[in-house]
Structures are given as structure tokens and as C-alpha cells.
Amino acid sequence: MEKYLKDALEIRDYAKENNKMFRDSIPLIASENIMSPLAMEMLLTDFGHRYAEGLPHKRYYQGNYWVDLMEEKVTELGKKVFNCPQFDPRPVSGTNANMSVIFGLTKPSETISAPDLSGGGHISAARFGALGFRGLDIRNYPYDPETMTIDPDGAAKVIRESKPKLALFGQSVFLFPAPLKELSDVFRDVGCKVWYDAAHVLGLIAGKKFQDPLREGADVVTGSTHKTLPGPQHGVVLGNTDDETWKKVQRGVFPGVLSNHHLNTMAALGVTLAETMDYGEEYAGKIIENAKAMAEELHSLGIKVLGESRGFTQSHTLVADVSGFGRGKRVSERLESCNIILNKNLLPADNNKNSMDPSGIRIGSQEITRIGFGKSEAREVARIIHRAISTDATEEQIKKEVKELKSPFQDVKFCYGKHEAYQYISLFK
User: Fold this and answer.
1) Is residue 286 included in any domain, yes or no?
2) Contact 280, 78 (CB under 8 A)
3) By three-state DSSP, how is residue 81 classified?
4) In this predicted structure, what is the pLDDT of residue 418?
5) Phi, psi at residue 25, to the nearest 5°?
6) Is residue 295 part of a domain?
């Protein structure tokens, strides 16, 4: 008797309903994206059932002939996309990649410099995150609260005084490039290694539309592969450093923080990297155009968008102060009820105290761009957001506007044409 079949089918229904919800919604979470059909097909292959500890041709398991060829191809593509001599595609997430660097290049009680959480730093760089759990002495950089960018002079002072083993740059609110070039002399004088967390901007770097951290002084770059790089939920480490440092990083990956490295998502990453070689530059450019268009429109409607002095953003992300409309929690919940999906976000003025009810919201343009939105649609998104939070329009009225705007945009762009992989996802269309 199949006693629990109904539970399995209930889970399947949840997946179908989630697909339906996002089909009819405007997705603006800055840390999400959708894969191409060809990349998605890789998740359903036998790779997802197998183990491959170690590096190609140096495995602890048999049966890895095709896995080794796949991993070598993914590594080759990664080196081409990012023009880097070292590339490790094994981490299973961005934070897992971060932990690889932490374990490989630091020891407990050593000093690390990093962005402050209230200035857009990632949770893994917080005292209650991965850096803190490693037992590191964390020194935060001063930053400009209007642009959420690291202050170069203040950062130079912190680095010179604390002499960190490792200097970390990169944020989860990453509006503008980090001051790597400005601090290059400081890094050299102190003798620290430089680590850049590119999780949010990895696709913009691949598309040559953001800074190039490996050419600006970073020894290693980590990232997740499902934000502006529109791949699977996976992670990578890039390197432009000496062999001994790279060996330490790779030992941090395995056996440091993972065993098997999720072969089906690595294969999906490889497909995404190939598509990035062909489409990445155009896609990255349009992501930034759409983010700027939304920011400008929101600003014109009276919503305070950070970074006005520098054009609001040079990435996929914009951050708005919505304290005049009910604060971040209320606004994000109101928008969710209207099928506009984004997240509440700490602002510098919150001083890390109100993470569950902060003053701000964070908006990302990468997924709407992936399905074909241009600047005119991005501006309309901003106008719908404004109507939703500043007028008496009902949820049903706003949902109707959202559906009308979204309905023509249901196919993934900037990827290879319709492939037989579509047969696998038709169930959820």
C-alpha cells in the first residue's frame, strides 16, 4: 500500500503552485535568477545521483570517466569567461565558496578586514556568520551611507592599523565597484591577501560591465552562480595568485568544507558559462540599464533611492528607503500580496538593529531582464510599485496590472534556442 503517496503528490503540487505564482509575478529578488532550458536539463541527469570527491583523474570513487570530462570542460569555460588562470567549480554555493577561502587562507584568531553588515556586507562576513564562526578578528571598513560604498581612505587606515591576514571586499548590496585599485599600495605595504566576494555581480563581471577584480588586485574571487550569472544554485572560486595560495584554497574546498560537489549543478553551470560566452555581455548591459531605469523612475515618483549622487547604481541592484510608506517589512509584504516579489533590507540608518523590520527594500533587475523586460517595462514596474504602496488601489487591481505587464514575457532570453530540454519542464509550464 502506497501509504504516503498523497504526501509526495502534495509536495509536487507545491512545486506547481510555486511555478504558477512566479509565472504571474514580477520577480525582483536581487539574489535570484532562472536558468535556460538546456542548463535546467542538466539537473535531471544521472550526474545528480553520483559522487566525485577530489579533482578530475584523482578521485576517491570509480565511475567518474564522464564526470571528469565534464568538470574539465566546465573549468576550461570558467577560465575563458573570467580570463583567469585558476578556476574551481566545486563549491555548492556562494557561502560554501566563501568558507573555502576562509578555511584555506586563515586560522582562528587571525585578523580579517571586511565590509560592515549595515553597509551592505554579506551575512557570511558578519560576526555571527562564517567569519565569526571561524574565530576571526573582524575589522570593518568605514563606508558612505548614501552610496553604501567603502570609503577608500577609511579602509586604508583600517588595513594599515590592523594588518589583516586577508582583506575582504564584496557585498550583498553591491551598488558600485569596490575600491581595489585605490588600495593596491596598501595591500602591498601590509602584505595581505585580497579576497573579493562577487556573488551578486559575477555575471556583470563576466559580461565586462563591472569592475574586473582579478586585474585590480584580488588574489581570489568567490561567487554564487545564480544571481547576475543566470545559472544553478552553485558556487565558484576564481584565482589569479601564486600556486601555494591556490593549493590552500583548493584544500579549503576539499576536504575543507565539502565532500561530493553536486555534479548535476556543476554541469548546469557549464552550460550557463557557455551561454555567457555568447550572450553575457549583452545581458549584463541590459541588466544595468533596467536597474537604472527603475531607480530613476522611483526617484521621480518621490521614493528615496540611495546613490543618487552617483546615478543610483552601476549594478543590478537598487536600494530604496521606504520608511515614509510603512518601512521595509510592511512594504515588502504589501508588494508580495500584489505579486511583486522583492525583499526588505537594512539601510545604514538602521545601524544593524532592525533586520526584521528595516527601513529599506532591495530590488534586482536581473531576472526581469532575463525574460525580456526593457527600460520601458522597468519604468512601468517602478510605477506599479509606487501605486501599490502609496495609493488605495486594491490587491486585485495591482495584480491585474502586474499580470498584464508580465504575461507577454514568459520565455528565457540570452540563451540557446528552444532545445529538447523543454520536454522536461513542460509539466510545470
Assistant:
1) no
2) no
3) helix
4) 64
5) -115, 165
6) no
Number of structural domains found in the chain: 1
The answer to whether the beta carbons of residues 390 and 326 sit under 8 Å apart is no
Q: What is the CATH number of the domain that holds 238?
A: 3.40.640.10
Q: Can you read off the three cell numbers belonging to residue 52? A: 566525485
Kind and range of the H or E run holding 206: helix 202-206
Q: Reduced to 3 states, what is the DSSP secondary structure of residue 235?
A: strand
Pick from 236, 227, 228: which is nearest to 266 by CA? 236
d(CA 187, CA 56): 34
Flag whether 297 is in a domain.
Answer: no
Say if residues 115 and 121 touch (Cβ distance below 8 Å): yes
131 pLDDT band, cuts 50/70/90, is confident
Work out the mean pLDDT of the chain and round it to a whole number.
94
115, 141 contact by CB (below 8 A):
yes
Q: What percent of the chain clears pLDDT 90, i.e. is strictly above it?
A: 89
Domain-embedded: residue 141: yes
- Contact call for residues 250 and 88 (beta carbons, < 8 A): yes
Q: What is the pLDDT of residue 130?
A: 82
3-class state of residue 227 by DSSP: coil
- Determine the structural domain holding residue 48 and report its residue range: 39-273
Q: Are 258 and 47 in contact (CB under 8 A)?
A: no
